[in-house]
């Protein structure tokens, strides 16, 4: 099978898990059904009921990269991921209102964050979201040493790696389970449809109805 993205093909990049699950109803609204389940299939390119449409399964953080370089025509990515990527080469036509959460600062339950900030203390902050964290603390005028992690940020304050973390929070269950408290919300997060800018021009006829179907279906959900 030729796996290169060609003119007559539409390639969608999605990550497994919540984004894939939450995108299925939007695809259904556009008449597209994915024919294999990424949780059980080892395939990374999944067929759909439309032979011209295929779905790439990639890491959530890699979705913008595949779309930026045109290896995928469109994709779905969280605002958290898009802010770290920078959004270059991407058109972001629709906030899909899926995978909703917030980006927050959290600390050990016993740590007086407000006081540390007032005192002008230099904070060690562990996060996967270094760009967002840097901007947030710069805006507040707080000096930070950022420690880049790739997951399980909640562990860092527990073992003394950092004073604080910047991570996404939804129910707050993970923070509670690890005796951490949310001390500051940085922003609300949801996932967006991202489209390769060149593909939008060259494949507009195929892409536009899908973008509109996603737009309408996400409005109904929200
Ligand atoms: P990667 O696999 O690349 O490390 P990830 O594990 O963060 O990424 P997911 O957990 O699938 O990937 O999250 C995808 C998106 O869903 C995130 O970018 C974020 O926007 C959103 N998200 C993350 N955690 C939650 C949550 N607990 N509830 C709701 N939405 C969330
Ligand atoms: C995300 C995030 C937090 C958790 C927050 O992890 O990294 O740890 O969700 O959600 P909560 O406030 O409802 O507990 P996820 O469940 O996606 O695990 P992963 O990052 O390891 O995929």
Textual characterization of the structure:
This protein is an alpha/beta fold and 222 residues long. It folds into two domains: 10-100 and 189-221, D-Maltodextrin-Binding Protein, domain 2; 101-188, 3-Layer(aba) Sandwich (D-Maltodextrin-Binding Protein, domain 2). The chain has helices at 18-29, 63-68, 79-85, 113-118, 130-140, 155-158, 173-177, 197-202, 204-221; strands at 10-14, 45-47, 53-57, 74-78, 90-95, 101-108, 123-127, 144-148, 164-169, 180-189, 191-196. The strands form two sheets. A six-stranded mixed sheet has the order 2-3-1-4-11-5. A five-stranded mixed sheet has the order 8-7-9-6-10. Strand 7 (123-127), helix 5 and strand 8 (144-148) form a beta-alpha-beta unit. Helix 1 packs across helix 9. The two termini are 39 Å apart. The model has no long low-confidence stretch (mean pLDDT 96). The structure holds adenosine-5'-triphosphate and 1-O-pyrophosphono-5-O-phosphono-alpha-D-ribofuranose (PRP). Residues 151, 167-174 line the site of 1-O-pyrophosphono-5-O-phosphono-alpha-D-ribofuranose.
Distance between the termini: 39 Å
- CATH class of the largest domain reads Alpha Beta
Number of domains: 2
Largest sheet: 6 strands, mixed
Helix/strand/pairing category = alpha/beta
CATH superfamily of the largest domain: Periplasmic binding protein-like II
Tally of individual helices: 9
The number of strands is 11
* CATH domain fold name of the largest domain: D-Maltodextrin-Binding Protein, domain 2
Small-molecule components bound: adenosine-5'-triphosphate, 1-O-pyrophosphono-5-O-phosphono-alpha-D-ribofuranose
Query: Strand order, biggest sheet?
Result: 2-3-1-4-11-5
Q: What shape does the CA trace take?
A: elongated
Q: Please give the CATH architecture of the largest domain.
A: 3-Layer(aba) Sandwich
């Amino acid at each position: 099978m030729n796996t290169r993205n060609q003119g007559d093909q539409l390639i969608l990049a999605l990550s497994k898990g919540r984004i894939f699950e939450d995108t299925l109803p939007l695809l259904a609204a556009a008449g597209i059904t994915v024919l294999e389940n990424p949780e059980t299939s080892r395939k990374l390119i999944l067929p759909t009921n439309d032979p011209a449409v295929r779905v790439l399964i990639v890491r959530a953080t890699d979705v913008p990269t595949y779309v930026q370089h045109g290896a995928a025509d469109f994709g779905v990515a969280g605002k958290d991921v898009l802010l770290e990527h920078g959004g270059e080469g991407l058109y972001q036509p629709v906030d899909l209102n899926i995978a909703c959460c917030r980006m927050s600062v959290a600390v050990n339950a016993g740590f007086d964050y407000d006081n540390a900030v007032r005192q002008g203390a230099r904070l060690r902050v562990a996060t996967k979201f270094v760009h967002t964290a840097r901007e947030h603390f710069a805006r507040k005028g707080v000096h930070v040493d950022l420690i880049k992690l790739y997951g399980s940020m909640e562990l860092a304050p527990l073992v003394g790696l950092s004073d604080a973390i910047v991570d996404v929070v939804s129910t707050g269950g993970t923070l509670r389970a690890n005796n951490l408290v949310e001390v500051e919300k940085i922003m609300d997060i949801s996932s967006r449809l991202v489209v390769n800018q060149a593909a939008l021009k060259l494949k507009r006829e195929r892409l536009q109805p899908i973008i509109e179907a996603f737009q309408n279906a996400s409005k109904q959900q929200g």
